[in-house]
Amino acid sequence: MEDSVKPLAPLGIDGVPDPDTTRSQQLIEQRSIDYVPEDERHGKVWKQGPFWFLANFSFFSVALGFIGPSMGLSLGWTVLGGALGAVFGALAMAFHASQGPALGLPQMVQSRAQFGYFGVLIPVVVTVFVFIGFSTVQTNVLQTGFQGIFGWNPVLTAALVSAGAALLSVLGHDWLHRSFRILFWCSIPFYGALSIAMMTGGVQSTTPVEGGFRAAAFMAVFATAASYNITLAPDIANFTRYLPVRTKTSHLVLAVVGGTCLALVWMMAMGAWLATRTGATDALVSLNDTGNEVFGHLGTTLAVLSALALTATIGINTYSAVLSAITIIDCFRPQQATYTQRIVWSVIVIAVSFVASINISGNQLTSINDLMNGLLYLLVPWSSINLVDFFFVRRGHYSITDMFRPNGIYGRYAWRGLTAYAVGLAVEIPFVVFSFYAGPLATAFHRIDVAFIIGAIVPAVFYLFVSRGLDLEAEAAAAANNPAH
């Protein structure tokens, strides 16, 4: 498996090396789950800010702002809960971002160090469901929104969105970054115009919907915002692994936190304003109607730009789901990057989310809230174990080659990580809150959601305790021969 971490020659359509083709001439990204060598690293830290800003800068984030008012929470408390949750989630994902340049690997491949070569299948399968689940709900929100605004057939909308997302996934890393930068600069002026109109009375409002403070609703908003950022954690190293090895962690964390939080807080605040001041119930429709009040076609422009941003975000989900799927296959049969592989898996993943999106029924806000909660409960224990291992146990020292060896130093099944993950899920169960079920302790405390907080702390402490038995000297010797950089 030494070849798994060596630079690959540029590929032809079926993975056949083409020595006359340079990286700049490649339309489709060459790499898959393999190591990115230093001579292929490129990009600047500050560009991560606009990239992750746009990941949250769409009407889907606006829709999240409707959750608090729908549960009786006031505008002010909704904005505060969203802001605190956004920061909580962004800090977790931003520290995952630092693993990209340090290791040059996709996020879930690195998790083999905590869970083992085959043991990693458990969190990787979870992340595949996370990415597909997100894409499904986001596509469904676009369907209903465009049906409400333009009368478009929902299946047609889903097909167009899925095709665009699949294309971006196939083209890969650099094209996703380019599309996000373009959409970032195109979107800012129009959203800025609407926000100014809202603050200066340029938008007509109805009698404000009265609300107050409700602890359960406040924690629901907090958890939703935290979840939206934390669910980017399995994504983020996939898009920072091309950064130079010498990238400063503090600068990268600042760029990621700043980008994600600014966008999410802005959009959720806009959604909460629309819900409490106009009585709106659909994010995209209200964005369109309210924008068109300010000046001609502003709302329509915002709806289109927001749909394009969300399509690009679904492209991110699809891209990361493909990397996770390839990681699963690689556990049983070593994989080399080919264009055919990327195309086939992108089509498979997007087809699943397309079919699921056109079959969603029921209250949309309830579905979104339940999805956010479920993903948060599944990802938080993995995230805490991964971060504790990287920053406190192994302190960033890993043998890249051994991550591609079933009999390497990380083993086939790493009982410490697997047990800690199981413990994390188990301790969350009594505290979980869904629309259809609440754990016994959550019920006793009026459905206040603290499951994800417990799911972050308990497995982290447990993993740190059981990791005292690791032979870190032997690992350090192996890492010195096959370092991360």
What name is given to the CATH topology of the domain at 41-368?
Hydantoin permease
CATH architecture of the domain at 41-368: Orthogonal Bundle
Q: Which stretches are poorly predicted, pLDDT < 50 over at least 5 residues?
A: 1-25
Query: What portion of the residues fall into strands of 2 or more residues?
Result: under 5%
Distance between the termini: 18 Å
CATH superfamily of the domain at 41-368: Hydantoin permease
Order of helices and strands: HHHHHHHHHHHHHHHHHHHHH
Mean pLDDT comes to 86
Task: State the CATH class of the domain at 41-368.
Answer: Mainly Alpha
Largest sheet: none
What is the helix content?
55-70%
Radius of gyration: 22 Å
**What structural class should be given to the helix and strand makeup?**
mainly alpha
Q: Determine the number of helices (DSSP H or I, runs of at least 4 residues).
A: 21
The coarse silhouette is globular
Strand runs, count = 0
